[in-house]
Amino acid sequence: MRIISGTHRGMNLFAPKDMKTRPITDRAKESLFNVLFKYNIIENSVIADLFCGTGSMGMECLSRGARWVSFIDSGRQVIPLLDRNIAKAGYGDRCRVIASNAFKSGAPVPSGCPDRPTYDLVFVDPPYEMSRDTSIVSPLGKLLSLISQQVRRGGLVVVRAHENSNVLPQYADLRSIDHRRWGTTAVTLLECGGPEAPL
What we know:
This protein is α/β, with parallel strands linked by helices. The protein has one domain (26-192): 3-Layer(aba) Sandwich (Rossmann fold), CATH 3.40.50.150. It is built from five helices and eight strands; from the N terminus they run αβαβαβαβαββββ. The chain has helices spanning 26-37, 56-63, 79-89, 102-105, 139-147; strands at residues 46-50, 68-73, 95-99, 119-124, 151-161, 170-171, 174-182, 185-192. An eight-stranded mixed beta sheet has the order 3-2-1-4-5-8-7-6. The longest helix has 12 residues, at 26-37. It is globular. The termini are far apart.
């Protein structure tokens, strides 16, 4: 697992030996960032990486010029590795690690950017067993409704879910604008305040 582009291109990331964090493959990550590139959403942006594990997505964004990243995870085993990755890249002044259950906190206010109370981009990558049910009242559905209040209008939310899951067209003010599948990785992009979802 490594950073694939930007100022720290090729930097290997510390990861747990048992790989229970289900990291995204380099190939799928590169494909996802190629999609995000057309939205011009990363450079100088404020980003949240939920269920971040060792920080692969957020670290990639920092390497590509993001202004700030909030890393949110409740895993006691992965946070020390995340801290090591941040220190290795020298990103300590551009991010914050928040030990929290993302299902409850969503994307907390980016405290390192007092002029930015909301996010431009949020990555949501819950454990697969928590992404099978995507209904409005499911943990994932409730989380996305919460995030809709934490991302700016026009901002994006990237949901990586179980390959057989069916992310709904809309959660509160978040509306699906793109869906991709790379191998066993299924990714949905939702925009805050986007066009009305079809009935």
